[in-house]
Amino acid sequence: MGKIKTHKASAKRFSVTGSGKVKMGHCHHRHNTGLKTAKRKRHLRSGAILSDAMTANVRALIQK
C-alpha cells in the first residue's frame, strides 16, 4: 500500500496550529501596492485562520 504524498505547494502556504486550526497568509500584498490604501495593506499583512469548511481539505493535502 502506497503512502499519500504531501502537496508541497499547499505545505508552503498553510500551517497547522497547536489546536488544529489552519493558518494562512493573505494574498494581494506582493505588487501594485501603490494603488492600495494603507488600511488595506495593513490588514493584508496579518495572517488569517482558514474557514471550517476548507480546513479538512487543506489538512488532507498537507498531512498534519
Please characterize this protein's 3D structure:
The chain is α+β, with helices and mostly antiparallel strands. It has a single domain, classed as Factor Xa Inhibitor. Helices cover 39% and strands 16% of the residues. The protein has 3 helices and 3 strands. The chain has helices spanning 8-13, 38-45, 52-62; strands at 14-16, 22-25, 47-49. It has a 3-stranded antiparallel beta sheet with strand order 1-2-3. The longest helix has 11 residues, at 52-62. It is elongated. The mean pLDDT is 94.
Short characterization:
The chain is an alpha+beta fold. About 40% of the residues lie in helices and about 15% in strands.
Which structural class do the helices and strands define? Answer: alpha+beta
Gyration radius, in Å = 15 Å
Low-confidence stretches: none
Give the CA-based shape.
elongated
The CATH architecture name reads: Irregular
Which short descriptors sum up this protein?
alpha+beta; about 60 residues; Factor Xa Inhibitor
List the helices and strands and how they pair.
Elements: H1 8-13, E1 14-16, E2 22-25, H2 38-45, E3 47-49, H3 52-62
